[in-house]
C-alpha cells in the first residue's frame, strides 16, 4: 500500500522568531519567503525560509498546540544537515553571526569535512562539505577498522 | 556575502533506529536508501530514508556526541510537515502503524486539511493536504477576522 505523501519539510519552533529569522539570514543565507503575524500579539504564527534550495518552516512558541522551542524543552533530537561547498567559510560566517561551534571542521572517513554549531535559539546545524567519493562498503570497512572490529 | 550552502536535510535521532526505520516504512512509506551499522554494538550510526521525494537522515542515540532522542530530551521542537494528496487515508495508515493522533484531520483557513500525529519514538508529524488556493493577504485577513483583530 503506497501513500500520497510527496514531500517532507522541517517545521521548527524558536523563541522570538522575528529575531531568529534575521539571524538565520546572516548565519546561513536564509531568505524569507513569507510570514503570517498573529494579530493578537505579533508572534510569527508561520513563516517559510529558503536555505540553499530547501524550504523550512518556522514559528514562535504556541504552548497550547505543543509548539515549544529547544529552550523550553531542553534541547532538540533533530539536527539540520547543511550541504555546503565551503565548510570552513560557512562555519566562520555562522559563528560571526552568533552561533557557537560544538565541533570544529574536520575531515571524516565517510568522505565529508564536517562542523557542528548550535544557534542562539538552541537548534543544532551540521555543515558538511563532500571531499571524497567513498563507496558504502568502504565507509563501513573504515568504520570497522577504526573500532578494531 | 552569500554562502555555499546548497541544501538542508533533517537528521533525527531515535531510540532503536532499526525498529524505527521499519515503522516509518509502514507509517509514511519511507524507503531505506542505506544504513551504516556500528561494528561495536549494532547501533545504526547513520541511515538515509526517502519519504515522498525528500531525503531524511536518521541514527540511534549517541549521547557522547549530543545525539539524543525525544524520549531522552522530553520532546522535540521540530515537526515534520508532510505534504499529501490524501490526508485522511495517510493519517489512518500512520495510526494503523502505531502513531498516535494529536489532532484529527480538519480543514484550516489557510487552505489545507491538516492532521498531527506523534510517532512511537516521540517525533511529531503534520500531514497536510492542500484544499484551496489562498493568497497570503487573504490568509492574514482570515486570521485577523478569527481573532477579532
From TrEMBL, chains A, B:
This is VOC domain-containing protein. The keyword Ribosomal protein does not apply. Gene3D superfamilies: 3.30.720.110, 3.30.720.120. Residues 4-130 form the VOC domain. Signal peptide: none annotated. It comes from Rhizobium meliloti (strain 1021). Pfam families: Glyoxalase. Keywords: Plasmid. InterPro entries: Glyas_Bleomycin-R_OHBP_Dase, Glyas_Fos-R_dOase_dom, VOC_core.
Amino acid at each position: 500500500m503506497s501513500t500520497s505523501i510527496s514531500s517532507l519539510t522541517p517545521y521548527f519552533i524558536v523563541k522570538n522568531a522575528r529575531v531568529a529569522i534575521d539571524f538565520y539570514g546572516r548565519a546561513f543565507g536564509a531568505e524569507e519567503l513569507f510570514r503570517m503575524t498573529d494579530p493578537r500579539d505579533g508572534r510569527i504564527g508561520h513563516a517559510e525560509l529558503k536555505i540553499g534550495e530547501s524550504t523550512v518552516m518556522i514559528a514562535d512558541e504556541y504552548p497550547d498546540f505543543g509548539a515549544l522551542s529547544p529552550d523550553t524543552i531542553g534541547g532538540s533530537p533533530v539536527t539540520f544537515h547543511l550541504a555546503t561547498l565551503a565548510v570552513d567559510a560557512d562555519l566562520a560566517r555562522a559563528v560571526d553571526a552568533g552561533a557557537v561551534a560544538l565541533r570544529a571542521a574536520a575531515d571524516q572517513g565517510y568522505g565529508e569535512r564536517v562542523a557542528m554549531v548550535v544557534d542562539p535559539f538552541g537548534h543544532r546545524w551540521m555543515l558538511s562539505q563532500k571531499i571524497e567519493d567513498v563507496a558504502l562498503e568502504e565507509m563501513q570497512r573504515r568504520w570497522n577498522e577504526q573500532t578494531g572490529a
